[in-house]
Design goal:
This protein is an alpha+beta fold. The protein is 16% helix and 30% strand. It is built from 6 helices and 23 strands. Strand 22 (380-389) and strand 23 (398-403) form a beta hairpin. The longest helix has 18 residues, at 2-19.
Length: 420
C-alpha cells in the first residue's frame, strides 16, 4: 500500500513537470480547439484581461518564479505591467508622461461605465489567434453655441469664491478640477482688488441658484500662479489652486484631462526591422492624429455674462468655437500694454466664430477651452484657459486662451511632484 502511494506521487510530480516544461515561443494548447504560443505573462495581453475577469491562464513554465503562459494573441506586447484596463474592458498603456497617465487612470475612477477608446480583443478566424484593435469612434453629443449646459455634462467645472466666509462670498471666475486637490484657472483670477485672494472652490453645481445640498465647496489652502506671470500682462496667465481637503468624485464632480500633444515615443524610429511590435505606440499615434484634428473646434464653458452689459449666467453656459489662424490672432491682438509683443502662438491661442457672434465674456475667465478626451467620451481635455478678450459678442472677434500644452511640465511639477 505504501509503495502504491509513492508511485502515485511520483507520477503526479512527473506529470506536473511535463506540463510546465514549455519555453517561450513554443506552441501550446489552451483547449481542444484553441492553440497558442508560450509567452511571459507580462507580454500576453489576453492573460491580463483573463486575470481581470478572475480567470487563470494556462501555464507553460516558470522563469524565476514568474509564469510563462499559453498566449492566444497574434502579437505579444512590450509589458502589460504598464497597461490599464477601463471599466468597459478597453486597454490603455502608461507612457511615463504624468499628465497623460493620470488621464488614463481617471478611467478607473469613473462613477459609471462609459465608452472608452482603447484596445479591444477580436478573434481572427483566418490566423486562429486573438488580435487587438482600437475601439471605433461614436458620435459625440456636445451641444453647440451659447446654450445652457446639461447637468453632469462638465463635472470638472469649478466656480471660484472671494471673501472671508462662504455665505457672503462673491463667485466670479471659473476653473477646472484636474486632480483630487488641484483646480486649474487663470493667474489674473487669483485675487480681486476689493475682496482679496480667492478663498473657495465650488464644485458639483450647474446653476448659481442650485440648492446648498448640491454645492461641494472647498477652502483654498495654496495659490500658485505661474512663476513668469507679471500682471497686468496677459502672458503666462495660468494658475493652480490647491484645496485643503481632497475632492470627493461623483457623476457631478470629476477631473478633466490636460492637453499633452507631445507624446513620448515608446519605439523611436530606426532602421532596425526587428524592433518589437508595439500596441502602445499605435494607440499614441492615433491619439496624436486625432488631437490635431479635434482642436480645430473646441467648447468653452463658464458662468460669465450672457453678453455685453448683460447679467452673469445662472446656468452654466457652453459655446462651440472655431480655432483662428495665428495670422488672424496676431491681427486681432497686436502689441499693446497688456501684450507687449502681441499675440504669442507658443503660449496662447485664440478662438471665436467667423459667422456668428460667439465668444466667452466677462466672468468666464479661468474657465476651460475643451475638446473631448481621446481616451473616453465621458472625459474632457483642457486645451486652453480663458484669459483675455475684447468686448464680447461681436461677429468675427475672438477670445484669448492660455495654451495649456506649453505649461504641462510646470503643472506636473506642482500637482504630481517627485518621481513617477
Amino acid at each position: 500500500m505504501f509503495s502504491d502511494r509513492v508511485f502515485y506521487l511520483f507520477v503526479c510530480v512527473i506529470s506536473v513537470q511535463c506540463a510546465f516544461d514549455r519555453s517561450e515561443g513554443e506552441p501550446c494548447q489552451l483547449n481542444e480547439q484553441t492553440w497558442g504560443k508560450c509567452a511571459h505573462i507580462s507580454r500576453c495581453l489576453s492573460s491580463l484581461l483573463d486575470l481581470q475577469k478572475r480567470t487563470h491562464p494556462v501555464i507553460c513554465s516558470f522563469q524565476s518564479r514568474e509564469p510563462v503562459v499559453c498566449c492566444p494573441d497574434c502579437e505579444v506586447v512590450n509589458d502589460t505591467r504598464t497597461a490599464i484596463v477601463s471599466n468597459d474592458g478597453a486597454v490603455f498603456f502608461r507612457t511615463g508622461q504624468k499628465a497623460r497617465d493620470k488621464c488614463i487612470e481617471h478611467l478607473l475612477d469613473l462613477p459609471s461605465s462609459c465608452y472608452t477608446k482603447g484596445l479591444e480583443g477580436l478573434w481572427d478566424d483566418s490566423k486562429q489567434c486573438q488580435k487587438y484593435k482600437r475601439k471605433g469612434n461614436i458620435a459625440s453629443s456636445v451641444a453647440v453655441g451659447g446654450k445652457d449646459a446639461e447637468r453632469s455634462r462638465y463635472p470638472h467645472m469649478a466656480l471660484l469664491g472671494y471673501g472671508y466666509d462662504r455665505d457672503s462670498a462673491q463667485w466670479q471666475c471659473g476653473g477646472s478640477l484636474i486632480s483630487k486637490r488641484f483646480v486649474l484657472s487663470a493667474a489674473h483670477c487669483i485675487s480681486d482688488t476689493v475682496l482679496g485672494p480667492v478663498s473657495f472652490v465650488a464644485l458639483g453645481i450647474l446653476k448659481r441658484t442650485d440648492p446648498d445640498s448640491l454645492w461641494q465647496t472647498y477652502d483654498v489652502q495654496r495659490i500658485i500662479s505661474h512663476p513668469e506671470y507679471r500682471p497686468p500682462s496677459k502672458y503666462h496667465d495660468i494658475a493652480l489652486l490647491e484645496t485643503v481637503q481632497p475632492v470627493r468624485y461623483s457623476k457631478d464632480v470629476f477631473p478633466a484631462c490636460l492637453d499633452v500633444q507631445g507624446f513620448i515615443d515608446l519605439n523611436p524610429k530606426s532602421d532596425d526591422e526587428d524592433k518589437p511590435f508595439s500596441f502602445e505606440q499605435i494607440l499614441l499615434d492615433l491619439e496624436r492624429e486625432e488631437t490635431t484634428e479635434d482642436q480645430s473646434r473646441a467648447t468653452a464653458t463658464g458662468w460669465g455674462r450672457l453678453g455685453k452689459n448683460k447679467p452673469l449666467a445662472d446656468n452654466l453656459q457652453e459655446v462651440k468655437l472655431q480655432k483662428f489662424t495665428d495670422e488672424k490672432c496676431s491681427k486681432l491682438f497686436p502689441p499693446h500694454r497688456l501684450l507687449k509683443n502681441g499675440y504669442n502662438p507658443n503660449w496662447q491661442m485664440c478662438y471665436g466664430d467667423e459667422n456668428e457672434p460667439r465668444d466667452t465674456c466677462e466672468g468666464d475667465s479661468g474657465g476651460p477651452l475643451l475638446v473631448t478626451a481621446q481616451v473616453s467620451y465621458c472625459l474632457h481635455t483642457i486645451i486652453g484657459v480663458t484669459s483675455y478678450g475684447k468686448a464680447c459678442g461681436y461677429l468675427g472677434d475672438a477670445g484669448m486662451y492660455t495654451r495649456v500644452y506649453h505649461y504641462v511640465p510646470w503643472i506636473e511639477s506642482v500637482v504630481w511632484p517627485g518621481p513617477y
